[in-house]
């Protein structure tokens, strides 16, 4: 399942145009769901954008961790 905002999530956002209006966001949930978005303007996003990237989650004693590979 992809692009479902369910449960705990970690993410990273790139403002690659440095315009503070457009961003590319990559998120992982604690159970490995991928969420990727193109952000436009302060509060608008497009979840239909589906780039190719890898992500992996893992569990430790009292926390979970996430790792991204974005090329």
What does it look like?
The chain has 71 residues and is an all-beta fold. It is 0% helix and 51% strand. The chain is built from no helices and six strands. It has strands at 9-14, 22-29, 34-40, 44-46, 54-59, 64-69. The strands form two sheets. A four-stranded antiparallel sheet has the order 1-2-3-4, with no helix packed on it. A hairpin with a 3-residue loop joins β3 and β4 (44-46). The chain is elongated, with a radius of gyration of 13 Å. The mean pLDDT is 91.
Write a brief caption for the model:
This protein is mainly β and 71 residues long. Helices cover 0% and strands 51% of the residues.
Judging from the principal axes of the Cα atoms, what is the shape? elongated
Count all strands and give the number: 6
Estimate the mean pLDDT confidence: 91
Helix and strand run: EEEEEE
Residues in helix, % = under 10%
First-to-last CA distance: 22 Å
Structural class: mainly beta
Q: Which terms would index this structure?
A:
71 residues; mainly beta; four-stranded antiparallel sheet; two-stranded antiparallel sheet; 0% helix
Indicate the topology.
Layout: E1 9-14, E2 22-29, E3 34-40, E4 44-46, E5 54-59, E6 64-69
Antiparallel strand pairs: 1-2, 2-3, 3-4, 5-6
């Amino acid at each position: 399942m992809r692009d479902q905002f369910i449960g705990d999530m970690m993410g990273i956002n790139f403002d690659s145009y440095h315009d503070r209006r457009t961003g590319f966001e990559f998120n992982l949930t604690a159970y490995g769901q991928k969420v990727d978005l193109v952000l436009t303007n302060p509060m608008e996003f497009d979840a239909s954008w589906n780039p190719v990237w890898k992500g992996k989650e893992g569990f430790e004693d009292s926390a979970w961790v996430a790792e991204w590979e974005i090329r």
